[in-house]
Amino acid sequence: MHSESAKKILIVDDDRRNREFLKTILSASGYLPIEAENGMTALEIAGKMYPDLILLDCMMPDVDGFYVSRQLKEGTATRTIPVIMITGMTDRESKLRALENGVEDFLSKPIDRAELQVRVKNLLRVKEYSDFLANYNHRLEQEVAERSKEILSSYFETVLTITRAAEYRDEETGAHIRRIGIYTRELAQLLGLSKEFVETIATTSPLHDVGKIGIPDHILFKPSSLLPDEQVIMKSHARLGAEILGGGKSISRFTKMGAEIARSHHEKWDGSGYPDKLKGEEIPLSARIMSITDVYDALRSRRPYKPPFSHQETCRIILEGDGRTAPTHFDPPVLEIFRKNNKIFEEIFESYQD
Asked: How many whole angstroms separate alpha carbon 208 and alpha carbon 227?
């Protein structure tokens, strides 16, 4: 017996035994399983019942999981439903193809019960944040004319709530998140940008890594270098963050800029970044500003896989390159402002520590 508030999970698999296995696990965890035996039926059900999450078999006789995921992500009503692809394929090309078609996560066959439960829980948490912000933006559109000051105050509380969630998810980035807002404010002012732009980027830039809420713990907290497949999943945090913040389609300048920063802060001026391999001014200005501040703070900070670097060494790496980071990664005017004013960054880093 499921409660009315139970999360609906659509199981898409042409093998009845697989569906029964997943149904048993999900029911025992308090979820409400829905079954579809092929891809076209899954698309029909998803468009009528709007499940909270979809477990999607990769290989099916009518249409494959790649097609189903692409159709879901192209549909206005279904694009925000998280998809976990169940696959026996382990090659990098297949996983990249799945990510390009909108898949959020993977489960390898044979399915591990504990891994299934953790991945479902993590992606449902992402969906809850996405739904919350979608509902918030809808209310904002309806009420902004008559209650703009009250709504703006509520928005700031929402930003703080999500920022705290990101801090909780990644315990090593608490001070990093706080410093980012200050770095970006200073840099935007030095670039001579408008007061509104400065205010907006300072408020929204701390949300740049909110997509890490959806990254599995064993990857997010791994103390050693990530394997190629793990890197693919880690990089998906940029797209996840943008989706959580509404994909940039909000009427609010805050969530719009927050989404573009979350998606594009790992893009590089020379086109070698991710997730969209944008180049030059194709990259939003907010993300170009965010990029250099994020790299500076990451180099200065201790991480499970690296020691902290000094201010001098960090500046040398950014301005001259070290084989991994290169000056060609950054917007030239932004880089020049950093070159002339990097002492400000050092002062901010030293003033705000964990």
From this structure: 23
